[in-house]
Amino acid sequence: MLNKRIFQILLPVIAGNFFCLNSFAQNGDSLKIDYNYINSVPQNAEVYLNDKLSGETPFRFPKQSIDTSNSITVTLKLKGYLDYSFELIPGVMPVNKTINLVPKNKLSVKDGGNVEENTVDYFKAPRKIVPIVVSSVISAGSGVLSYYFKKLADENYDEYLATGNRDKFNKTRQYDLYSGISLAAFQLGFGALIYFLLID
């Protein structure tokens, strides 16, 4: 009597688990029930069968729902990503396929799937070579002159301190002035270089 009561309690549980496992196996294994399964990364891409919008990824459809006598072109489209197309061949269906979509701004697919990096010109107009070269020369030359005149000024000032010669003091002021002018020219040349190189 006790065994019969236990059997009555366990029977619904066993039956329920069997049906759950069976339905899970059918949903998880589309090939066993002749379902085509197409997915994408990222998901929610539009799925076109022979240019007809048929759904979004993840997309399942039974083999019997389409004409399997001819090949079918499947195209995945998602905003911001390159379109991806492939053929469903008669006799090869059903398929179970997941496609990694490629972002438009970073990579492009050419020649049947070879991936190449886009070569994008980041400047609206070509750079002007002559102003860039001139401003580079002015910047470099005035920087060197500024250092040179400052060194002469320091040397003459040291001599003035050692000898008290007023002429050395006047030369120190003169070289300091030249160094300041050269430094201003360096700053102007460097600013022009940045402008012509990056902004213009």
Question: How would you briefly describe this protein structure?
Answer:
This protein is of the alpha+beta class and 200 residues long. The chain has helices at residues 2-28, 129-163, 166-199; strands at 35-41, 46-49, 52-56, 59-62, 72-77, 84-88, 96-100, 107-110, 114-117. Helix 2 (129-163) packs antiparallel against helix 3.
How would you characterize this protein structure?
With 200 residues, this protein is an alpha+beta fold. It folds into two domains: 32-117, Immunoglobulin-like; 129-199. It is 48% helix and 22% strand. It contains three helices and nine strands; from the N terminus they run αβββββββββαα. Strands 3-2-5-6 form a four-stranded antiparallel sheet, with no helix packed on it. A three-stranded mixed sheet has the order 4-1-7, with no helix packed on it. A two-stranded antiparallel sheet has the order 8-9. It is rod-shaped and about 110 Å long. The N and C termini lie far apart (96 Å).
Topology:
Elements: H1 2-28, E1 35-41, E2 46-49, E3 52-56, E4 59-62, E5 72-77, E6 84-88, E7 96-100, E8 107-110, E9 114-117, H2 129-163, H3 166-199
Parallel strand pairs: 1-7
Antiparallel strand pairs: 1-4, 2-3, 2-5, 5-6, 8-9
Helix pairs in contact: 2-3
**CATH fold node name of the largest domain:** Immunoglobulin-like
- Helix proportion of residues, in percent? 40-55%
Q: How many domains would you count in the coordinates?
A: 2
Please tally the helical runs, counting DSSP H or I stretches of 4 or more residues: 3
Q: What is the first-to-last residue Cα distance?
A: 96 Å
- The SSE string, one letter per element, is HEEEEEEEEEHH
> Residue ranges: pLDDT <50 for 5 or more in a row?
13-31, 108-113
Instruction: Look at the structure and give the CATH class of the largest domain.
Output: Mainly Beta
